[in-house]
């Protein structure tokens, strides 16, 4: 059969693709109707070369049943006289197309639920947010759809409840159900309220109380641990950590958790682990004020962005093992940063830190160079870190090998409360 002649099977495939591409627009009331599909037209040459194929094609359309109207026309051929052939397949509306491609149930379910939600919230008609959720409208189990509508109704009526997610009084709702659908609910709620709140922070949009940010620290000093009942590794909301009765001499901030848990005892020292961009919350920890603060992160653009953010709240902060010499000395350990952070002024970086950051962005050492903290040699890194914490080696102190300083020696309690 000539390729230009569209068979019923090929027309079905075309309609299925059109439905998949356009069903959201059609649900929103868009689209030009009727939808007409051209079936092609045989020529004298087509009939002369394979009359049987042309006859089979025409008969397939004559015997076709189902949605859509097949339109026939009389054609005059120079060599074969006058014949009646199919020329177009026409569909009056989206329902007919859906039925033709086996999507009747999904289409009817989606349109029914779409109209139900529009009648309750006409504002949703002002955008295509609801129509873009076609799969939700078509495929949600009845109990899930009812739960979604009930939840939206409650959130609209209680925009600032201040409840925890677990406390929402919506029948059948559980935290896992909502957490999996937070993006869906947030998108619909933003459209209902016509607001531009960041969709990722669904607690703010839903008016819910957000669980307190938890921070993990380790007290590397035995004397500090005595102050808190012997605890060493502590994870708690940052506001509760602020109430700890400690006043460390030094604080180490590391981005790698494994590094933090492996650090040895150091007199008067606390390590804070894996904060990321949450370093800006450190201002809550009053016992940090007056402490020597050292930051050790990855040598990449995001690492310097976090460093800048940390120094905004802790001006005394110094970086360690994030300099050009460290980077260049460990070239075999380089990997690629997945993506560069958004460029910014980063006014809190030192001249040297800014130069390394700028060179990373400019790919001076290669594309998206990254040296991860955890790839550095442990013993050498510890020597540099302890020097930064002013824990001098026995050589620097003029001591013999047997008199090496003990990093575990505690400070006197009086020193901790100066």
TrEMBL record:
Region (Disordered) location: 399-418
InterPro entries listed in its UniProt record: DUF3322 (IPR024537), JetD_C (IPR024534), UCP028408 (IPR014544)
Residues annotated as domain DUF3322: 14-189
Pfam families in UniProt: DUF3322, JetD_C
Occurrences of domain Wadjet protein JetD C-terminal (ranges): 207-380
Coiled-coil residue windows: none
Protein name in the entry: DUF3322 and DUF2220 domain-containing protein
Protein species of origin: Trinickia dinghuensis
